[in-house]
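Fill in residues.
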């Protein structure tokens, strides 16, 4: 019975930590895909000009189509990997 009291807090802590980490992973993947697809850096400051010469319409078009597709692919691979891990145990 003591093992049960030890496992429940560990599962709760693991779930809470996973809940906090997932948005950070998604932001990291979004940033890396944006850098790879548009060859531009992510604007860090709010004072960055959105009409500068580095921001052309072609970057926005590529970003609007390819970036969500890449993020969806990452999410799909993540879910399939987790599901396959469940079946392998």
């Amino acid at each position: 019975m003591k093992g049960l009291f030890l496992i429940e807090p560990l599962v709760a802590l693991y779930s809470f930590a996973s809940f906090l980490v997932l948005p950070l992973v998604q932001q990291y993947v979004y940033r890396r895909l944006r850098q790879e697809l548009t060859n531009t850096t992510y604007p860090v400051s709010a004072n960055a000009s959105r009409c500068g010469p580095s921001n052309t319409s072609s970057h926005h078009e590529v970003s609007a189509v390819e970036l969500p597709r890449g993020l969806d692919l990452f999410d799909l691979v993540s879910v399939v990997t987790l599901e396959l891990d469940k079946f392998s145990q």
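Helices lie at 2-38, 57-88.
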